[in-house]
Each structure stands twice: as structure tokens, then as C-alpha cells.
Amino acid sequence: MDLHYFLSWKVALLLLLAPCGLQCMSVHVLNEEPVHVMPGKQLFLRAQIEHGPLEEVSSVTWEREPETGMTHERVTLATCPGRSLKCAGTRPNVHVNMEQQETTLEMNAYEAADGGVYTLTVTDHRGAKTTAQCIVREYEEVHHVSVSINASHSTLVCGEAWGTDPHFSWLHERAAITNSVGRVSKDGTKLLVTKTPICGHFTCVVSNELGHSSATYTAAPCEAEGRGTIAAVVCPIFLLLFGGVLAFLLWRRHWHSNRGERLHEHLDDTI
Ligand SMILES: *[C@@H]1O[C@H](CO)[C@@H](O)[C@H](O)[C@H]1NC(C)=O
């Protein structure tokens, strides 16, 4: 009787100490989703397992299934069964590790086909399963960039069809955009053109860690400015040439008259 009383007190105390009760196993993947992996590089997933004082992890399984498509076939990548939780991978480039409250999955030489939804299943001592999922995708280079114009709003829009973590920048006639040309939106995808009329070549460059791709919108040539620039360059050259010739003529006249005077003086002396 005493023993029974003691045990029930112990259970009550444990319940008080564990606010979520006896069943509070939780699993979280700690990577930020979606996880992007460069081809040929390493995929590293980390998950945290939390459980109540009376719970015990009896097995851990990492699986993968395609993110899209008809076949939702799950492939087991590794399991860590039994009390020791010694993990066994099903392929040579996968290593899974299990510690007290953490499990990690390492996959070397990642390929596009390794993308998908990764599911981590933790089974407790009574067979109850808790799962966490994480989307893994290949880090893709930027391609198929295009630029279109929204004429009514004097805006150029840079559309980027594919690519991971795109970073946008704009050029006008291959030079950075100045305030006299336009303003780039905060996310970089749009250019509000303040220059009127809209003229010249506008290029949108989209880049990420694997490289860059660009597209150019060609408006009518900037004629007025073109002529202005030519005039601005050619006029000073003409003025300089004209000034130079004038100075030379003046100098020559001066020299000749000086020489004439000196000749006179010489003649005077000899006479
Ligand atoms: C032009 O931009 C405005 C404002 O963003 C938008 O409401 C409008 O639909 C756009 N027009 C075209 C043709 O895309």
C-alpha cells in the first residue's frame, strides 16, 4: 500500500514537471527551408528531437520522396533502430548520425535527382511516430531572363524564369543607372524610368552564386542627346584649332616685323 502511494506521488510530480504531459515528443528540422544545394556539393540536414521524461526514442528513419509528380514513392535513406540507435545508410554517400536529442544527415556529391521532400520519422518506445519534413532543391543557375516594358507606367520589368536566390541590377547604355535615368525598385525587378523620352539600351542583369544572365530592352536611339554630345565634343576641338592657327599667324607676323627691324639696324651699322 505504501509503495503504491509513493509511486502515484512520483507520477504526479513528473506530470507537474513535464507541462506537456507524458506524450510530448517533437521533431524539428533546423535548416532554413527550402534547402538549396549546389550540384556536387554536400547536403547537410540537422534535426532536433525533444521528448518527455518518460519517453524514449526507439528508432529514427530518414526518407525522401519527389516534391512533384505522380509517383510519391518514398525511398529510405537511413535508419537508426534499436536502443543503441546505430545508423545504417542505404547508399554509400549518405551518413546519418544520432545523438541524444539531435540527428544529422550528410549526403555527399549531391545531384539534381537527390532533391525532394525529406521526411524524418522518430518512433518512441510505444510505437508512436512523430515526423518532420524539409524541402531540398538543387541550387540552379539563372537563365531565361527577359525584360518587358509597361509603357503606361514608364516601368521596365525584369522577368527571371529560373534561378536560385536571384540578385537584380540594371544598366543603361552599359553604365549604372543614375538618378537622371531612373529608379530601381527595392527588390530590383523593376526600373521606373524618369528619363523622357525613354531611349537607348536598358539591360537587366540577374546573378547568383553560380553566375549571371542578362536581357536588354532596346528603345529608340537617344538622338537629341547623341547630337548634343557630338556637338559638345567637336566644338571645342574646332575652337582650339582655330585659336592655334590664329596664334601662329600672329606670332609669325610679329617675328617677321622684328626681323625686318633688326635687318634695318644691321644695315645702318655697316653704313
Ligand atoms: C503596369 O503596371 C501597373 C502598376 O504596377 C499595373 O497595374 C498594370 O497592370 C501594368 N500594365 C501592364 C500592361 O502590365
TrEMBL record:
Compartments reported by the entry: Membrane
Keyword hit for Cytoplasm: no
Membrane-spanning parts: 230-251
Keywords: Glycoprotein, Membrane, Signal, Transmembrane, Transmembrane helix
GO-annotated cellular components: cell-cell junction; membrane
Alphabetized Gene3D superfamilies for the sequence: Immunoglobulins
Protein name: Uncharacterized protein
Organism: Champsocephalus esox
